[in-house]
DNA sequence: CTTTTAATTATCAGATTGATAATTAGGAAA
DNA sequence: TTTCCTAATTATCAATCTGATAATTAAAAG
């Protein structure tokens, strides 16, 4: 809100000193697919609390930034990627503000979902440039399956789960999965992304039938790797999938 | 984030005085349906900036509250409702953090979607108890249609639109629309909610066919008002609608 | 009663789905 | 170059779902 209505001059009389300071942070749930597996970028914490535990990358929001600006900046620092262009999909996930989520002080964090494009085999390099913590890629579903001791720091397991659910859900009715692939891709590559995120196999024929009309045919074909017919190269569109592509039931 | 990873001792060395103060707020997009129209609760601002413009209700987040706690508290203050129970649906929408969204100082606001139950004709009373600003109900689609001068204060038009889109979208694949009705309701009441939110008529027969298996039959029937067969009373479930109920195409 | 109204059920052609099989076209091996 | 292998694509088919429309049912109003 701005200028609360229950007491109209609240903000005018608002004195920052009256409140304990609040730190605003931006956390990142960065996904990329390689080897048919959905990976998430995590960092190993070097200090207390949660020393040696894995955590989501993130950082503080500067005074002249929006939360998304900060997320973009942190991502660039983390990956060394240029991000000059539209290569990266970023969207806001949710804000986590439980008063005691950080034992040291009040940290309110706005989490962001980030999708990086890969060719399906090579993960983007992380933390290349001089930064402290060692960042790495971890299989997202395994992290979430979470051996009891292997939970993430703070409430980051919840954030990661929210991020995965957001992505998995949106893939039912949008073509957002294409953001995990290069500008041109085959239906098999796209299907692999679906299988990696949904952690469930898809019937190739039906997948092709459903997705083809949502994509733009480039007219080009790939040379096939180990035998098989050449695959058509497609480009993403912003079309919505209607009716949605059903996620295989999990019972 | 907590304890940024690009510089591990960042938080330890974090000095609140280094940053301009940030005010944390919780805004509310409160919906209720009456007379087949979706209404949103708005307050008329009494002070600058945006004096005399309509705005979303909201308030600051206290030092010991989460954003959702604050939203609940503000809602109670605004409506005088008890909220003791599960009568009210609250979910987080998004966080708005553009540095200049409030011209006076930095206010980061987490917006919440709130659904109030009505019988379809009477809107809940607002701002009953001694509070300053006059709050009232306004037709949501008309507000969004927005006569050029009639925009909401701050970025609240965007927040309202985001809230409506969230609700409208979720109604395709969940039974969240039942949160705008009493515990027991008829299919016609539920259809009216869909029509009010989607701003589009629905075929009664097909609506019944699709929704009936998602609801719990109470076995009871209503006495009908102005003629017509008695309607079955249903209760909500948490089932998902699969495949989703398609929103009438708008072209 | 008879008429009016609203809730519900029924129909029906066209789409969509899930399962499965057939076809196609390149690479690799004989 | 012929044959076999593999992967991409297309084809089938029954079951289900959709959108449109009509028929049936049951209560209220005159």
Task: Give a written overview of the molecule.
- The structure is a homodimer of 251-residue chains.
- Helices cover 23% and strands 24% of the residues of chain A.
- Chain A has 251 residues and is an alpha+beta fold.
- Chain A folds into two domains: 20-170, Nucleoside Triphosphate Pyrophosphohydrolase (Alpha-Beta Complex), CATH 3.90.79.10; 176-235, Winged helix-like DNA-binding domain superfamily/Winged helix DNA-binding domain (Arc Repressor Mutant, subunit A, Orthogonal Bundle), CATH 1.10.10.
- In chain A, the strands form two sheets. In chain A, strands 1, 2, 3, 4, 5, 6 and 7 form a seven-stranded mixed sheet that branches. In chain A, strands 8-10-9 form a three-stranded antiparallel sheet.
- In chain A, a hairpin with a 2-residue loop joins β1 and β2.
- Chains A and B meet through β1, β4, α1, β5 and β6 of A and β1, β4, α1, β5 and β6 of B.
- The structure holds a DNA duplex (30 and 30 nucleotides).
């Amino acid at each position: 809100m701005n200028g609360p209505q229950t007491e109209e001059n609240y903000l005018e009389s608002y004195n920052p000193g009256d409140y304990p300071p609040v730190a605003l942070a931006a956390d990142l749930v960065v996904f990329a697919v390689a080897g048919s597996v959905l990976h998430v970028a995590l960092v190993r914490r070097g200090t207390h609390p949660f020393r040696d535990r894995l955590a989501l990358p993130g950082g503080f929001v500067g005074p002249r930034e929006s939360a998304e600006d900060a997320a973009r900046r942190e991502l660039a620092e983390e990956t060394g990627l240029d991000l000059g262009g539209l290569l990266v999909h970023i969207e806001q996930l949710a804000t986590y503000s439980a008063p005691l989520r950080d034992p040291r002080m009040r940290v309110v964090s706005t989490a962001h979902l980030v999708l990086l494009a890969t060719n399906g085999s090579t993960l983007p390099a992380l933390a290349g440039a001089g930064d402290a913590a060692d960042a790495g890629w971890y299989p997202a579903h395994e992290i979430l399956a979470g051996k009891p001791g292997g939970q993430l720091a703070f409430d980051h397991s919840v954030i990661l789960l929210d991020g995965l659910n957001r992505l998995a859900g949106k893939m039912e009715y949008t073509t957002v999965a294409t953001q995990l692939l290069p500008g041109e891709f085959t239906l098999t590559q796209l299907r692999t992304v679906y299988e990696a995120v949904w952690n469930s196999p898809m019937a190739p024929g039906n997948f092709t039938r459903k997705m083809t009309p949502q994509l733009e045919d480039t007219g080009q074909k790939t040379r096939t790797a180990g035998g098989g017919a050449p695959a058509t190269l497609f480009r993403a569109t912003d079309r919505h999938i209607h009716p949605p592509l059903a996620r295989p039931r999990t019972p």
